[in-house]
Specification:
By secondary structure, the chain is of the alpha/beta class. The protein has 17 helices and 13 strands. The strands form four sheets. It has a six-stranded parallel sheet with strand order 5-2-1-6-7-8, sandwiched between helices. The longest helix is centred in the middle third of the chain and has 22 residues. The protein is elongated.
Length: about 425
């Protein structure tokens, strides 16, 4: 994927009206935009998405100085067009309804019922456009005793038990519940939402048995938070025993964790008996292979109290680089524990082109001296219709006039809306 890709994208021709802000909704719509959809992001005049102010860190201008534009916003708003519309005004509501009539998809993350007062809820817009796929992202879903509550990633990490299995065990240095280092519930919700939207598009447009109609998608951070507990939830449901925190160890695999080395730490992810045996041979510890306590993964999990200290004594005898050089050609999963800076300096990360820079629009309202924005490439690698990098994350209101002209408004009408502060 490159900024000059000639592919129109798998979702070319699909129009998305993005009424969402912060992370879960914008993460979903950025994925659709990367795949070629035309995503129009509606923002508050003068303020925009909250994450435009969520700094530090801030973007730098051409001289390397901080601007007032937070880097956070750029993580999830690439390839979109920004319009500023005040949906609290009747004129703004009319504009958004007009945009919805021409859209395929609406994504919003207001509180349950929050858009009904503006006539922008699912039922109101469906009456105007029966083909509309309308995705609502909330903390707790459209029904249930918590439906009216606001929901945030950190709150859901705590409520679903994710924090209870993340961090060092009680009694260990630094022990206690810990949030994951990024807002994983928001991110996973965006991914689930984009999958649901694509399914709804298929149901609507399938040539064999498509309905020709849109539908409402109810995405809840709580539902996603429980779903991504994955094997940890499965283990609890099978046994009734709630898992606890184990630091970097794995509840079902051993050895599968970090180990100290002569100059730091490394990660070993041994997932089967063959890998363990190859590690023992390479490490010069053949006695572990014949030790009945370590013969199978299940036994190694049961006897990790004996195995791990013995391994740590051995791993301290070489540097991290020496261990990786020793093990990487023996099909023993291992690697360094990088900082993010080290990760972006990694040869494979560079070879895959995971950092991409896009030129920044600098005329008109932008005027902030930002000439380019570097972000993370889409991980979606489609051979025929790869993601397309068309635009850097937009300046606030960058495309307002452009989008309104596409709706048929002339210059006088746009100027009138601006004078009335509707845009």
């Amino acid at each position: 994927m490159t900024p000059t890709s000639a592919s129109p994208g798998a979702l070319a021709g699909i129009r998305v009206l993005d009424l969402s802000r912060v992370l879960a909704g914008p993460w979903c719509t950025q994925m659709l935009a990367d795949l070629g959809a035309d995503v129009v992001k509606v923002e508050r005049p003068g303020l925009g998405d909250d994450t435009r102010q969520w700094g530090p860190p801030f973007l730098k201008d051409a001289d390397g100085n901080d601007t007032n534009q937070a880097a956070y916003f750029t993580a999830c708003n690439r390839n979109k067009r920004s319009v500023t519309i005040d949906m609290a005004t009747s004129e703004g509501q009319a504009l958004i309804r007009q945009m919805a009539q021409e859209a395929d998809i609406v994504v919003e993350n207001f509180k349950v019922g929050g858009l009904k007062q503006y006539g922008l809820d699912f039922e109101s817009l469906r009456a105007l456009n029966p083909r509309l796929i309308y995705c609502s992202v909330t903390g707790f879903g459209q029904d249930g005793p918590y439906a009216e509550r606001a929901g945030y990633d950190l709150m859901v990490q705590a409520m679903t038990g994710l924090m209870s299995i993340t961090g060092q065990a009680d009694g260990q240095p630094g022990g206690g519940p810990m949030r994951v280092g990024v807002a994983v519930i928001d991110l996973f919700t965006g991914l689930y939402a984009s999958n649901a939207i694509l399914a709804a598009l298929h149901v609507r447009d399938n040539k064999v048995n498509g309905t020709g109609e849109g539908q409402h998608i109810d995405m809840a951070l709580l539902d996603v938070g429980v779903a991504v507990l994955a094997n940890q939830a499965a283990g609890f449901l099978a046994t009734g025993q709630a898992p606890g925190r184990m630091g970097n160890s794995h509840p079902s695999l051993a050895p599968y964790q970090d180990f100290p080395t002569q100059d730091g730490n490394m990660l070993l992810a041994i997932g089967n008996d063959g890998q363990f045996q190859r590690f023992c041979a390479a490490a010069g510890q053949p006695q572990w292979i014949s030790d009945e306590r370590f013969a199978t993964n299940t036994l190694r999990v049961q006897h990790r109290g004996a195995l791990i200290p013995a391994m740590e004594a051995v791993t301290r005898t070489r540097t991290t680089a020496e261990w990786i050089a020793l093990l990487e050609d023996k099909a023993v999963p291992c690697g360094p524990i990088n900082t993010i800076a080290q990760a972006f300096d990694d040869a494979q990360v560079k070879a895959r082109g995971l950092a991409v820079s896009l030129p920044r629009w600098t005329d008109g309202e932008a005027g902030d001296g930002i000439t380019h924005i570097t972000g993370v490439a889409s991980p979606l690698r489609l051979s025929a219709t790869p993601p397309v990098l068309r635009n850097a994350p937009p300046a606030l209101g960058q495309h307002t006039d452009e989008v309104l002209r596409e709706l048929g408004l002339d210059a006088d009408r746009i100027a009138g809306l601006r004078a009335a502060k509707a845009i």
